[in-house]
Amino acid sequence: MKHHLRKLLKRFPRLKRAAQRLLSARGVSTDYQELADEGRTAELERLGPAWKSEILPARQRELVERELTAYLQGAAVPVFDVLVRSLRDLDDTGEPLRVLEVGCSSGYYSEVFAIAGLVVEYAGCDYSEAFVAMARARYPGLNFAVEDATALGYPDGAYDVVISGCCLLHIPAYPLAVAETARVARRYAIFHRTPVVIGRPDMYYRKKAYGVETVEIHFNEAGFLALLAASGLELIATHTLDETLVDGRGHATRSYVCRKKVA
Ligand SMILES: C[S@@+](CC[C@H](N)C(=O)[O-])C[C@H]1O[C@@H](n2cnc3c(N)ncnc32)[C@H](O)[C@@H]1O
User: Fold this and answer.
1) pTM of the prediction?
2) Using a 6 Å cutoff on CB, does residue 120 contact ligand 1?
3) Which of 7, 167, 169, 230 sits in a 20 to 30 Å window from 214, CA-based?
4) Domain of 84?
5) How far apart are CA 149 and CA 169, in angstroms?
6) How many distinct structural domains can be found in the chain?
């Protein structure tokens, strides 16, 4: 059956593209439900470890493979382009930057950077053993570790750049994760693909990511920027991936590039 379907899709590329679009729309984020104040703490505690699910790596990687293939063929992939640009724009000392991605999943940004011709020394960590196992299998020459973003095992200033890889939104204790990112960064911290709300307080959702129940937090932007400043970080660039604003209220997804303030 699968074989026949594959043959059919190969013969009809437009059908194949439509099927791919359907699959990715179905697969990533669905079933959003806002969490009311009452019972929220218990629900956040239940959903905090959700990304450790063993079924997530294969499901996410399927989508990533398609994006990597498109990127390799020269297509623009906005989330890749933004992170590549964020790194490229950092002042250059001539030495390759030592970069740690926290919440690295299968480590695919190492491949994105290589495709883009960006010379960095990449390492990754994730709290999911299953994701880290996949990363080690895919990229055996690179360094991956099982680490929780809220209590990283690295010394202060261990990496030139620490990328918080679109994971804060899934971390109920996110102020701790911001503080840890800042502590382990020697020069820069990048909070990639951060969902923010403008004109309203932090919003908490239960949603399905690739069919698995998780938590998603959208941060009040002013509060988030204040948290970065309080963590010893100076904002030096903001890249907006999407934004909807009406009368000063709305939401956006941005990558925030910060320089570590000298103590
Ligand atoms: C949406 S994926 C992001 C993958 C990739 N970094 C990106 O930017 O596309 C979120 C990743 O964060 C990881 N994660 C969630 N909570 C974490 C935590 N407390 N500590 C470390 N990693 C965490 C998940 O396991 C998952 O791999």
Assistant:
1) 0.91
2) no
3) 230
4) 31-260
5) 12
6) 1
Is 13 a member of any domain?
no
Residue 114: inside a domain: yes
Q: Look up the CATH number of the domain holding residue 52.
A: 3.40.50.150
Q: Where are the strands (E) in the chain, listed by range?
A: 29-34, 97-102, 120-126, 143-146, 159-165, 185-198, 203-209, 212-220, 233-246, 249-260
Residue 23 lies in a domain: no
| Residue 172 vs residue 1, higher pLDDT | 172
pLDDT tens-digit map of 118-147: 999 999 999 999 999 999 999 999 999 999
Which residue puts its alpha carbon closest to atom 12 of ligand 1?
103
Residue 3 lies in a domain: no
Between residues 7 and 30, the one the model is more confident about = 30
- Nearest protein CA to atom 27 of ligand 1, as residue: 105
Per 3-state DSSP, the chain is made up of helix, strand and coil in percentages (nearest 5) of 40, 35, 25
Q: Is the CB of 43 under 6 A from ligand 1?
A: no
| The two structure tokens encoding residue 193 | 């693909």
The position carrying tokens 């992170």 is 83
Q: Yes or no: say if 216 and 203 are a contact pair by the CB < 8 Å rule.
A: no
